[in-house]
Each structure stands twice: as C-alpha cells, then as structure tokens.
Amino acid sequence: MGNWKSKVMLVLVLVAMQSFQAYSYDYHSLSIDCGATNTTFDVQLNRAWTTDNEFIGSGVNKLVSTSASFPQMNTLRIFPSGIKNCYNLPLEKESKYLVRAGFYYGNYDNLRKPPAFGLEVQSGNINVNVSTSLSSDPIYHEFLLITKKSALDVCLIQTQNNQVPFISTLEVSSVDQRVYRLMTSNIALYLESRINYGANQSVPDRFPTYVDIYNRIWKPEEVSTYRNLSLGIGSASWDTAENYPPNVVLDSAIEANSVSESIFLPINFREKSLVSAYFVLYFDITPAYQEGEARRKVAISIDGQLLNITRLLGNGRCVTVSIFPVNVTGGTANLTISPAEGATSPALLNAMEVFSVISSADRVVGTFFGIVLFSWIAYRI
C-alpha cells in the first residue's frame, strides 16, 4: 500500500511539474540576449536578460570584435545555414505586445562587411529589411501588434547570397489593450520615431520598468532653433496620462521662442511610398511653467492640414494627443505646433511617438487607410 501511495504521489508531482513548466512558457515580457550563454541581470534597467536557447534550435553563438556600450549587444546569434530561421515565443493569444529586435554587427567576423537581410514577424504578416552597419550604435526594429495565436514567430531571412542574417537582442513587453487605443486589431504599428524633446545626451534613452512600464526607448533630442527646457531626471515613475509616458520624459520639452512663433518638425519615414501614420504627442507645461501664466493652447497641423486644437492643462498635468490615420507621401511629414487663437504663452512639445501602419489582416506587407481621421485627446486630471 505504501508503495502504491508513493507512486501516486510521484505521478502527481510530475504532473504538477509539467503544468508549471507549461505555465512558465506563457510570457508577459521577455528580454532575450541572443547568443549569450548565461542569464544576466541589468541593474540599471532592473531587468533580467535570458539566453535564447529555449526559443530557437538553429544558429551559432558569436561574440563581437568591437564592443558596444549596451552589454547585451556584445553577443549575437548568426544563421549561416538555411534561408529562414525562426524564434518561437509563447505569448497570450489576442493580446497587445511591443516587440523589438536589436541588431549590432560589431565586426564579429572581422570582415568589416555588415550584412543586409529580412526580418519577418507573425507568420509573414510583418516584413522589414534590416541593413546593418559598422556604426557603434545598434539598430532596432520595433512593432506594436496583437497576437493571432498563443505563440509569436520572429524569423531572420537570408535575402542575398553571402549575407548571413543575425540578431543581437529580442524584447517583448505586454501592453494594455487601452494603450495606443486607436490601433485596431487588423493592423500592426511600426515605430518610426520616439523622441524625448529638450533632453540632452546625458539623459538615458531607456528606463527601468518602474519608470516606463512598457520598456520603450525614448531618444533624447535637443533642437537648437527652440528653447530646450529640462528639469533633469526627476520622478522615477510613469505618468497616469494616456499611454503612461515616463515622468522623466515629461520633465523636458522644446518651447517656441515667442508666443507668435510655431514649432516645425520634419518627421522621416522608412518607406518613401504612400504610408498611413499614427502620431502621439505629449504635452506637459511643467518644464516651462511660470507662476501665474495663462493656460496654453496649441494648434497641431501635419503637412499644412489643421488636425487638432488642444488646450494644455496646468502644471504637472499631461495632455496626450493621438492622431490616426495620417496619409504621408514622399517619406517625410511636416509637423507644425502653433499657438492657437487667444494663446498668451508659447507653443511647446515634450515628447512624440510616430508609427507607420502595417496591415496584418492579410499575409502581405501593406498599408491601412481609414476613412475617418481620429484625433484623440486624453487629459490627466
């Protein structure tokens, strides 16, 4: 009898272990250091980087010859065999994710010949060309998508002879369905630009999850033709405004030189053909606030078309403006932020995200053009 009970207990333990293993493969976020042999912990980002061994069975681990400033870029996995090699990431079905693939050549083969190849995501619904370089800066391709299945495939495609595909990092972050709310289930978004305006190069471009819950990269950028305002790195948390921008990002801004002047910003796109774009603008007057100033009001135009007039709120109160879809031709959109009628303080801008829209309803890369233009304003009260 005792032996029978022991066998039953052993079976139950094995079943529990299998259930735990299956559950452990359902990830809400992943930080994969491709080509690494050990899991590491990034103290600055408060993030563990795992190896990629359990997500792919092909490829060869390599080390770069020219080290990168971001440690996880110093390893990579190359794919010298096969036209198509795929990672398989277990995720929740019909859920929204930020997916970012990072590439750093680092002259790992000592040939000084950075390759070009293809990147395919979600069974070919999303395709981009990856062109690497000898630069010390990594290249990222980032997407916002809604999963169709309980697993996501990320594939490296050889598109030219003697051009060996590789990948350095692969990151996935679960995103609340209410975030980037104008995004519908039949599209995916490709990140064109995400800028922290007014911040100098001493401000990091990425933050721990307790500062930015969605692990975004915010490029700091000063614009010499406008006032660059910054409170420094302040509150270590995210704001409760639409899309939860980090407070660090809202603590800097560019401001027009006078109340009669507009802010002009050219936005470059990867594709030069007609694309549909999704703009997100963040406004918080805190870096520019002066005691007793009147509330600001800005008019937002893209390529000369007035799309939104927004009243900015008081000190420490963020306003998020989302505009979608915006048709862009020729690879550049010209954004203008002007003082609206009756404004008594200059126009400003804290941060901006710009995406191009990829149709994921069909198995081809394309664009999505809506009939109605949505301009969504979210106020944090």
From TrEMBL:
Keyword Membrane: yes
Pfam families in the record: Malectin_like (PF12819)
Keyword check for Cytoplasm: no
Single GO cellular component term: membrane
InterPro entries to which the protein is assigned, alphabetical: Malectin-like_Carb-bd_dom
Signal sequence range: 1-24
Subcellular location, record wording: Membrane
Protein keywords: Membrane, Signal, Transmembrane, Transmembrane helix
Domain Malectin-like: residue ranges: 32-357
Membrane-protein topology: Single-pass membrane protein
Superkingdom of origin organism: Eukaryota
Name of protein: Malectin-like carbohydrate-binding domain containing protein
Originating organism: Trema orientale
